[in-house]
Amino acid sequence: MTSTTVPEPTTTRPPMTTTTTAPTTTTTFPPTLMPDVVGLNETNATAPVTAAQSGFRPQGYSNFMVNRVCNGNTDPAKFNFVFDQDPDPGTALAFRQPAVISAYEACTTVPSFVGLDFAAARDLAFQSALQRGQITATCQAGVLSLTVISQDVLAGTIVKVNSIIQLVDTPQNCPP
Q: CA–CA distance from 137 to each of 65, 87, 110 (Å)?
């Protein structure tokens, strides 16, 4: 058996350099969509909207608002229920895009207090879920004392429950 030794090459090579490029990973999440919350009560509507937003917002960041309005409603069965939302259901939510829901506030229709005596006006305000503000007294010829002669909010106006209504009545000591 003959053994042959191969001599080392005489030419010099540059040192070997290995460049490793880490694979770039791009993660794409499906868009977070605005849930449909119309018809839910405010409490049940808030949770899915804030949950949808938390999927792409930093912790503690919120851009969610509840608009509480009468919107012509005095039906107690609808109080605190969502009747509108922005953006529309199924819309992809963007990072700084606000989400707004509109819910019916507890509202009532202002009755006419004019012509009522003081006690009847007090009772009607209570029955209508309104607060009487300071009562101003003004003498008016031909009007019985302690009778309401005007009010600051027109009868038929829809206002939030516990709104203050200012009344003007005639005092007891008006000259005839």
A: 42, 50, 21
Tokens at residue 119, please?
């006690």
Q: Which of 111, 154, 119, 156 is nearest to 135 (CA)?
A: 119
Half-sphere exposure of residue 57, counting CA atoms within 13 Å on the CB side?
19
Cα(163)–Cα(148) distance, integer angstroms: 18
List pLDDT tens digits, range 54-84. Answer: 766 555 456 789 999 999 999 999 999 999 9
Closest residue by Cα to residue 50 from 37, 64, 60? 64
The pTM assigned to this predicted structure is: 0.69
Contact 157, 109 (CB under 8 A): yes
Helices and strands (DSSP H and E) totals, the chain: 2, 10
Residue 82 CB partners (closer than 8 Å, separation 6+): 37, 38, 39, 40, 41, 42, 45, 101, 102, 103
